[in-house]
Amino acid sequence: MLPKPSVPVDVAPFSEGAVLFWAGGERVWFVNECAATVWHLIKSNSGRAEALAIIAGAFSLTPEQAEQNLDIALGGFAAEGLLQGGCPQMADTRAEVDGVLERRVAMPHVEPDKWEYERCFGAAATVCMRSQQPSVAARFALLYAHVLQSLAARGAHLEISVLRQGANGWICGVNGYSCTPVVPERFLLPVLTTILFRQVVDNLHDCMLFHAAVMVRDGVAFLFPAPSGRGKTTLSAVLAADGWQLFSDELAAVSLVDHSVVAVPLPLSVKSGAVDHLAAIYPDLPDQQEWLRPDGKRIRYLSLDSDTILPLATAAPVGSIVFPHYCADGTDELVPVSKTETLRQLCLSGSSQRVLTFADVQAIVAVVERADCYRMSYTSSEAALRLLGGVEK
Predict the structure, then answer these.
(1) Residue 333 pLDDT more than 70?
(2) Residue 98 burial (10 A CB sphere; 0-12, 13-18, 19+)
(3) Could you tell me if 210 and 351 are in contact, meaning their C-beta atoms sit under 8 angstroms apart?
(4) Is the pLDDT of residue 100 over 70?
(5) Which of 76, 176, 253, 276 is the most buried (most CB within 10 A)?
(6) How many Å apart are CA 297 and CA 271, to the nearest integer?
(7) pLDDT (tens digit, 9 = 90+) per residue, 50-81?
(8) DSSP states of 104-120
(9) Distance (Å, rounded) from C-alpha 145 to C-alpha 29?
(10) Residue 34: what are its φ and ψ, rounded to 5°?
């Protein structure tokens, strides 16, 4: 008999193979057609001889080739912990702003006249910001007014509060509960940003989320998936200055209903190394206050023109997926990427620590099947604009 699965992994079809996903987990794996067939045989409790005959017949292989392909597939599944006796490692799918909120303790009661800043959003005032640190709270409300208004319009109930704790510390709370340890002031705005990011994600439970910048040109979305440090935010800022509209520099949220991508329009978090590069386009950026994120990165927040930022959950069809890589000493090229490789890369770009459903995997597959897929290497902003200008709208 073939080995048994170690966890309940299901299969979603794909034109160039299949996607295995751990139902209720956070992992997905791309496999070719032969490996997908092997997995179906494993799940059906087939014997080895039966499996070899099926593989040889399905793919026109000799007995030796069938055995080689079966052993390669079984070895790959075993290495991933998918066979009996193993267990797959959970993916580290946290977006780079994640990892701050640590606890849930009731906030101390504060008399209304002790709040030094208060602002509510929406006709029913269901979204509020209250703080004993007025300058940071005002900056937060200014940066994120469009998001807070959108949450209120969607019927969200959200009360974000900042309470003084000692001479130089602050506690941040959501809906009456503290969710951070004592935060020094230099961390405060990034922590509030993370809190809001979490709330936005919680209101996108009808979406599949993965780590990518999303920009829109002429109503069509371009996805730029990349790990931290590949220049997603800088590229987003450059495209915004060229007339593109911002959906997100951090998170692609794909609708499970129609597989469009929806806007998560938080202001751009520009790391210190990119400030000089963007100063020619955004001359006020170097003068913005620098903040320290809990992960140690120094950032400035870049606010874009209102015409550039689309409202939360605005939808657009995905036209292209572009994997960007900035390298000043590299080459400028935009190269088509197979849908197989695109899916492999997106399978590594999960986010928000949500467990996967069949609809999530279907959404990833549908987006890849419909999109034009590329890898873009570029040495300058001008080169990126030129390369992307050649992509059909």
Answers:
(1) yes
(2) middle
(3) yes
(4) no
(5) 253
(6) 7
(7) 999 999 999 999 999 999 999 999 999 998 88
(8) -EEPPP--GGG-SEEEE
(9) 39
(10) -65, -45
User: What are 154's two structure tokens?
Assistant: 């969607």
Read off the pTM: 0.78
Q: Which residues pair with 160 in a beta bridge?
A: 129, 174
Q: 89 pLDDT exceeds 80?
A: no
What span, in angstroms and rounded, lies between the C-alpha atoms of 45 and 33? 19
Which has the minimum average pLDDT: 41-50, 118-127, 211-220, 294-303?
294-303
For 390, counting Cβ atoms within 10 Å of its Cβ (0-12 exposed, 13-18 middle, 19+ buried), the class is: exposed
Q: Which two structure tokens, joined as six digits, stand for 112?
A: 């209304």
The answer to whether the CB of 88 falls within 8 A of the CB of 82 is: yes
What's the per-residue H, E or C state across 147-192? HHHHHHHCCCCEEEEEEEECCCEEEEEECCEECCCCEEHHHHHHHH
Stretch 334-341: mean pLDDT: 92
